[in-house]
From TrEMBL:
This is cyclin-dependent kinase. SMART domains: S_TKc. Residues 20-44 have a biased composition (Basic and acidic residues). One of its GO terms (molecular function) is cyclin-dependent protein serine/threonine kinase activity. Pfam families: Pkinase. It is an enzyme of class 2 (transferase).
Length: 471
C-alpha cells in the first residue's frame, strides 16, 4: 500500500477543494454565457451594418466595401445556374422600392436593340447628363417577377470600378404610368455611362483598319479590364467586339455583364456550358466542358485581337461543328502534346481526327494569316489561341508581354482617332448570330449534350491541309 502523501488532504481540504472547483465551474459557465451573448450581439450588429450598406448601395450606386465573393466550401458562388450551386444572390424582397423612376430621364434616341434588351441614349432631366439606359427585358424575369440574370448583371456592375469597365450609375424603374409609351410596363433599367461607339460598329464602318499602335492600345485596355475582372473572381463569358464600348477620347470599356458570374477558387466544377457567343467560344466549351475558368475569356481576347487586325471575326462558324473545324484549321488539330487532356472532354469522343495529324504548326499558320504582326505579336496571338486552356496566358501575364513593350508602342488615348457616333443616330438592330441564351433558358440549354450535334451526322470538312471528320 502506498504511503500517504505528505500533501494528503484533510477533510477540511477536500471540502475546500470541492468548493473551489464548484466556483471555478460556475465562473467558466458565466464566461461561456458572456461569450455567447457577445457573439449574438456582434451578429446582430453585422446584420444591421449590412442593411445600412444595402441602403447606401441603393442610394449611391456602389457598396463602400467589396462583398465576399469566394464561395464557402460546398457553395457554388453567386449562381443562378442549375448546377447544384447554392444561390448566393440574396436581394431584399422588394429591391426596387428605393430606386428612382425612369421619369427622371428623357429618351433621346434608341441606340441598339441588343439580343437581350433595348439600349437607349437618354438625358437626366435635372442635370442634363447624357447616359445610356439599358432596359432589362421582361421575358427574362423569373417566376417571382425578378430578372434573374439582370440581378446578376446589376450585382457585378455595382461591385466593379475600373477605367476599362463600364460604370453603372444607378438602377431606375418604370411603371404603368410612365409617360414614355414604350416603357409602359413595369421595367428595370440600368443607367450606364454613355459611350459613343461599340467596337463592332466602328470596325464595320471605318474606312481603314486600325494602325498597329491603335490595336495595341485597344488590346491593352481590354486586357487591363479583363485582369481587373479576373482579380475580382468575375468571368465575363461573353467578350466580343459588340460588347466593347469606345468613346471619342480613345477609352475602351467592357460592357454587357448579362452572362458574367462570380467564381470561387477552385471554380465550381459544373458551370453552364452554353456561354460565349459562338464565334468567340473557346474549344474546351465547344467540346462540352462544364469545368472551365478564366482561360475562356482569354480565348475571346485572342479572337478580338485577331479581329482588330483584320476587321473581321477570325472564326465565323455556322454551328458548333463548323466552328471547331475552323479553329483546328488555324490552330492545328489537338494532339496529346498540344492538349494532353483533350480526350477526356465530353464531346471529344465524337470527333474523328486524322490518324496522323500534320505537325502542330499553329504558329506558322497564324504568321501566314496575320502578316502585319511582328514575331512578338504572333507569339502572343498564338498563345491566346492555344487549344489547351492551361497554355493560354493570364490577363496579368499578357500585360507584361514584350508585344506591348516593343515599337510601335500603344498610341496615347488622347491621340486616338475619332469616329462619327452611330449611337447618337437611328436605332440599329444588332445581328448577333449564336449569342448564348441567358436566364433560366440558358441554364437549361446548358445541360444539353452538344455531342448530339456531332453524332449520327457524317460530315467531312476539308481545310488547312488536313481532313477533319466528325461523326
Ligand atoms: P444585350 O445584353 O442586349 O446584348 P448590350 O449591353 O450588349 O445588350 O448592349 C447592346 C448594344 O447597345 C451594344 O452593342 C452597344 O452598341 C450599345 N450599348 C450598350 N451599352 C452602351 C453604353 N453604355 N453606351 C452606349 N452604347 C451602349
Amino acid at each position: 500500500m502506498a504511503s500517504k502523501s505528505r500533501w494528503a488532504d484533510t477533510e477540511e481540504d477536500t471540502a475546500l477543494a470541492a468548493k473551489l472547483k464548484k466556483e471555478k465551474e460556475e465562473k467558466r459557465r458565466l464566461k461561456a454565457e458572456k461569450a455567447r451573448r457577445g457573439e449574438t450581439e456582434r451578429q446582430a450588429r453585422l446584420v444591421g451594418q449590412q442593411e445600412q450598406t444595402n441602403t447606401a448601395t441603393e442610394d449611391d450606386g456602389r457598396p463602400p466595401k467589396r462583398r465576399k465573393t469566394t464561395p464557402e466550401p460546398g457553395q457554388g458562388g453567386a449562381s443562378t445556374e442549375k448546377d447544384g450551386d447554392v444561390k448566393l444572390l440574396r436581394f431584399p424582397s422588394r429591391p426596387w422600392d428605393k430606386c428612382r423612376s425612369v421619369e427622371n430621364y428623357d429618351c433621346l434616341n434608341d441606340i441598339a436593340e441588343g439580343t437581350y434588351g433595348m439600349v437607349s441614349r437618354a438625358k437626366e432631366i435635372a442635370s442634363g447628363r447624357v447616359v445610356a439606359l439599358k432596359r432589362l427585358k421582361a421575358e427574362l424575369m423569373d417566376r417571382s417577377g425578378l430578372p434573374v440574370t439582370g440581378l446578376r448583371e446589376i450585382q457585378i456592375l455595382r461591385d466593379c470600378k475600373h477605367r476599362n469597365v463600364v460604370s453603372l450609375q444607378e438602377v431606375v424603374v418604370g411603371d404603368d404610368t410612365s409617360k414614355i409609351e414604350k416603357y409602359n410596363a413595369f421595367s428595370i433599367f440600368l443607367v450606364l455611362e454613355f459611350f459613343e461607339h461599340d467596337l463592332k460598329t466602328v470596325l464595320e464602318y471605318m474606312p481603314e483598319p486600325f494602325l498597329l499602335s491603335e490595336v495595341k492600345l485597344l488590346l491593352y485596355q481590354l486586357t487591363s479590364g479583363v485582369a481587373y475582372l479576373h482579380d475580382h473572381w468575375i468571368l465575363h463569358r461573353d467578350l466580343k467586339t459588340s460588347n466593347l464600348l469606345l468613346n471619342n477620347r480613345g477609352r475602351l470599356k467592357i460592357a454587357d455583364f448579362g452572362m458574367a458570374r462570380y467564381v470561387g477558387d477552385p471554380a465550381p466544377e459544373k458551370l453552364t456550358q452554353l456561354v460565349v457567343t459562338l464565334w468567340y467560344r473557346a474549344p474546351e466549351l465547344l467540346l462540352g466542358t462544364r469545368s472551365y475558368g478564366r482561360a475562356v475569356d482569354m480565348w475571346s481576347v485572342g479572337c478580338i485581337f485577331a479581329e482588330l487586325l483584320t476587321r473581321d471575326p477570325v472564326f465565323q462558324g455556322s454551328n458548333e461543328v463548323d466552328q471547331i473545324t475552323k479553329i483546328f484549321e488555324l490552330c492545328g488539330v489537338p494532339t496529346s502534346e498540344t492538349w494532353p487532356t483533350f480526350r477526356s472532354l465530353p464531346n471529344a469522343r465524337a470527333l474523328r481526327l486524322p490518324p496522323k495529324p500534320p505537325p502542330a504548326a499553329a504558329g506558322s499558320v497564324i504568321r501566314a494569316r496575320f502578316t502585319q504582326l511582328t514575331n512578338a505579336g504572333c507569339a502572343l496571338l498564338s498563345d491566346l489561341l492555344a487549344l489547351d486552356p492551361d497554355r493560354r496566358p493570364s490577363a496579368h501575364e499578357m500585360l507584361q508581354h514584350r508585344y506591348f513593350q516593343e515599337d510601335p508602342k500603344p498610341k496615347p488615348e488622347s491621340l486616338f482617332p475619332t469616329f462619327p457616333s452611330k449611337a447618337g443616330q437611328e436605332r440599329r438592330r444588332l445581328h448577333e448570330p449564336h449569342a448564348p441564351i441567358r436566364g433560366e433558358e440558358a441554364a437549361e440549354l446548358g445541360e444539353v449534350d452538344v455531342s448530339g450535334i456531332f453524332q449520327g451526322r457524317e460530315k467531312e470538312e476539308r481545310g488547312g491541309g488536313f481532313q477533319l471528320r466528325m461523326v
